[in-house]
UniProtKB/TrEMBL annotation:
This is ROK family protein. Signal peptide: none annotated. It comes from the Bacteria. Belongs to the ROK (NagC/XylR) family. It holds the Pfam family ROK.
Length: 263
């Protein structure tokens, strides 16, 4: 997934923009460890591009002021809940429709005066798990799913990412957009117990088994810290394991990709 990180890029800033929160930190690219306390603010209501840009610029400025090995030339990565191709956003499931067709690379790059690496938020979380976490060293088929505001996905084989899969939006069992029936946010909103929620997740993971036959599922997102309460209730054949980086995965993954000059 790119060339080896050079010594000039031992650190990077990672910003993870989600449907409900924006998180960021300075990351040690050799270890994947956060060199700062994780900064977090709510995603601006409505998810407008200008509002998110301003929030990201403020957060980057705050991180740059901290006492870290960060350099002026250190890479900056931003993950977004959208399909991204050549810096242009092509979907807007949990953010403003104004993102559709937007040159997001120019939006952030111009505001920061610095080249910015952009990647889908679930892809960033998956990269973190493959490079530093639960799937580190695996060269078989790995499918990372993020359970949060929606359902994200990141597909890997031989350690290589196939980007922008967005498998949370599959049509299944009469649901046009399955994440609207089975995301972690839906579990909270409907006050579902883990057994009821897992009964919604089981057909989803069985469908992914049929489509991709992965060797392992890795479940990411904040809910993964409660994996022992529900993963065993998802009735599938494929091994399913919790992510290790949890809510830091998006930050760490997009920082690593920035260090690799992804895209």
């Amino acid at each position: 997934m790119g060339k080896a990180t050079d010594k000039a890029h031992a650190t990077a800033i990672g910003i993870d923009v989600g449907g409900t929160g924006i998180k960021g930190a300075v990351v040690d690219l050799a270890t994947g460890e956060l060199l700062t306390k994780r900064h977090k603010i709510p995603t601006p209501e409505g998810g407008d591009p200008g509002d998110i840009r301003d929030a990201v610029v403020t957060m980057v400025g705050e991180l740059r002021e901290l006492d870290t090995p960060l350099k002026k030339s250190s890479p900056i990565g931003v993950s977004l809940p959208t399909i991204l191709k050549h810096g242009v956003s092509h979907s807007a499931a949990n953010i403003s429709q104004r993102w559709l067709g937007l040159d997001a690379a120019a939006l952030f790059g111009d505001a920061l005066g610095h080249e910015v690496t952009l990647v889908n938020d679930a892809d960033a979380a998956g990269v973190a798990e493959v490079h530093y976490g639960a799937a580190k060293g695996r060269l078989d088929a790995v499918l990372v799913t993020t359970l949060g505001t929606g359902i994200g996905s990141a597909l890997f084989h031989d350690g290589r990412l196939f980007p922008n899969t967005e498998l949370g939006h599959l049509q299944l069992d009469g649901h046009e957009d399955y994440e609207r029936f089975a995301s972690a946010k839906v579990r909270e909103r409907e006050d579902l117990d883990m057994a009821t929620w897992s009964a919604r997740l089981t057909p989803y993971y069985r469908h992914l088994e049929r489509l991709f036959a992965p060797d392992v599922f890795v479940v990411s997102g904040g809910i993964s810290k409660r994996a022992d309460e529900f993963l065993h209730l998802i009735d599938i054949t494929t091994p399913i394991i919790p992510a290790e980086l949890r809510n830091n995965a998006g930050i760490v993954g997009v920082a690593w990709l920035a260090g690799q000059h992804w895209g």
